[in-house]
Write a structure and sequence with these properties.
about 400 residues, alpha/beta, Rossmann fold, 2 domains, four-stranded parallel sheet, 10 strands, globular, binds iron/sulfur cluster
Length: about 400
């Protein structure tokens, strides 16, 4: 008699099969450029989630002239702002400069970003040069011959709308399934781990930002807020201007990690909300109605914070040479900040060279004004807010 075997319950499921894949030997290189600066934890969380070892995730080093000279020469693109141009050095360093070769070069095409302002603005898109940067730089490594292939490297560049978490697993799966031999299920759980890591990191830094503000409030001391794009944290792009200032004893807050606790936000924006000028602390329609660009939106929002927050007595605005996105924001941000009596200093054309001498002189000038005026700026700004600072 023929006994039929029930195949399905005993068969190995596809997801289990994929989960057992050993990826511990795969080495992934990520160029530390542009919006990797504010999403790096997502990539670490995702890659370790699919079984890549921490030690096998390699970020390129910070931007430098040497990096560009040694690894990016002859592979540049025309007509690009400096942060994009600098990418060829990062690609080259990962391809040619590793003792242990990488197997995958991961450089995502990020169309939109997670942002504290999502839901309050029209969109959170990246600059078009940022979005297309990965593609244009890749072409510099393929124009004569395929350098990736020649070095046994797979090039991975998933297209991502990071402001829409629901769609990300599918986008990551589409862009990476052939590179890492992924299943959709494991991609989903790894994406979850990626966002968990990113959220945890942001929360940690916001908490530190709040601690700085609390210290300033407690001691009636000033701090400095940096208005810049995430990649200005790269000391080859932002030239450590804020570090020089910090060395003079003024704590630095980066707008990307400004604390967003409801008590603090409501305290700062209560009057504007009550008067109907804005709908929430994250509403920037009063100063920037065409709010489509993520970093730009955040710059305008941070300018409003600087104008309100008593202990921010000085704003440093960083912008790169040839930045088309920043041009229309210069006047509004300066006006918002200066109308509140807060000091405003702009470094507007940062490029590859660090003009050390002039930076030092400007930093000394800034320090002079911060020292001289902070006391009265704090006092005047405190007078304008009628209610008490939440934790005092
Ligand atoms: S935002 Fe400005 S500096 Fe950044 S990539 Fe776009 S144009 Fe270049």
């Amino acid at each position: 008699m023929n006994i039929q075997t029930l195949l399905t319950p005993f068969a190995r499921k596809r997801s289990a099969e994929s989960l057992s894949k050993d990826r511990s030997k795969i080495r992934v290189g990520i160029p530390k450029v542009l919006n990797i600066w504010n999403t790096h934890q997502f990539w670490i969380g995702f890659l370790t989630g699919i079984g890549i070892k921490h030690t096998n995730i390699i970020f390129s080093s910070n931007t430098s002239e040497e990096q560009a000279r040694e690894f990016g020469k002859g592979r540049g693109t025309v007509d690009c702002c400096y942060p994009v141009k600098a990418m060829s050095g990062h690609y080259g360093e990962l391809i040619f400069g590793q003792k242990n070769k990488i197997n995958v070069l991961l450089s995502p095409l990020i169309y939109s970003l997670p942002s504290v302002l999502n839901g309050h603005v029209m969109a959170s898109n990246t600059c078009t040069r940022v979005m297309a940067g990965a593609e244009s730089i890749k072409s510099g490594f393929m124009k004569e011959k395929n350098v990736f292939e020649e070095n046994g490297i797979k090039y991975a560049s998933p297209y991502l709308t990071l402001d829409d978490r629901i769609i990300i697993p599918q986008q990551m799966f589409d862009g990476l399934k052939d590179i890492f031999d992924l299943s959709l299920e494991e991609t989903k759980s790894a994406v979850e781990l990626g966002f968990k890591a990113l959220d945890a990191f942001n929360t940690k830094l916001q908490k530190q930002g709040r601690e700085i503000l609390e210290q300033c409030a407690k001691n009636n001391k000033p701090c400095v807020l940096v208005l810049a794009r995430p990649y200005h944290m790269d000391n080859g792009i932002g030239h450590e201007i804020e570090t020089d200032l910090q060395a003079h004893g003024y704590p630095i807050l980066w707008m990307q990690y400004f604390p967003t606790d409801p008590d603090l936000m409501n305290w700062l924006f209560e009057e504007d909300i009550n008067s109907g000028r804005i709908k929430s602390p994250f509403d920037i329609s009063d100063v920037w109605p065409s709010s489509y660009s993520s970093n730009t939106n955040e710059i305008l929002w941070a300018a409003k914070i600087a104008a309100k927050c008593p202990w921010i007595t000085c704003v440093i605005r960083l912008s790169s040479y040839e930045c088309g996105m920043d041009q229309p924001t210069f006047t509004p941000t300066q006006k918002i900040v200066e109308n509140s009596g807060t000091l405003f200093f702009k470094f507007g054309d940062l490029d590859s060279t660090k003009p050390t001498g002039s930076v030092r002189i400007r930093v000394e000038t800034i320090v002079h004004y911060v020292k001289k005026n902070s006391g009265s700026i704090i006092e005047n700004k405190l007078k304008r807010i009628k209610t008490k600072w939440p934790l005092e």
